[in-house]
Amino acid sequence: MSSGPSSPNPVPVVLCGRTTQIAHAVIVDLKPEYEVIHLILTLQAALSELPPLLRGSLPLSFSSSTGSGLDTRNYAKPPAAVLLGAGYDDAAVEEMREACGELKDGVFWLRPDTGKPAPPLGPEYGKALVRRIKDVLGGLREEKEGEEEGVKEGRGGVVWY
Q1: pTM for the whole thing?
Q2: Cα 60 from chain centroid?
Q3: Per the omega criterion (within 30 degrees of 0), is the bond before 120 cis?
């Protein structure tokens, strides 16, 4: 799917994970359809960095992934989705969403379904998650086609991948 319209204009997303090793594998495999514009590695960073990112402005700090070089920091367009790793439990995800207030309604929130089989932690784990993320995000984007930009039934809720 490298020749589709998503290749020259990847969809911007934020990735919230816990380890740079898995984040790296996920970021590489999301390309070319998706661009991780910002990587968040802690709950505290998510609480302070997600609201300005969803507002379309720069975060006041880059505490979570400064110097990692993994995310693009291309903030020309706000993110279309927040991709959450399994390291964030229900309480953490709810805290993130509450910190974002009404801004949470403008993006897709994707969480891994830990009931689905996955390889052990490592590069193959990241690849398996990316296949599931692409399947789910691709379906959500197809449903949205033809609608006004930013409008989607169910946007703002948590979608499991």
Answers
A1: 0.85
A2: 19
A3: no
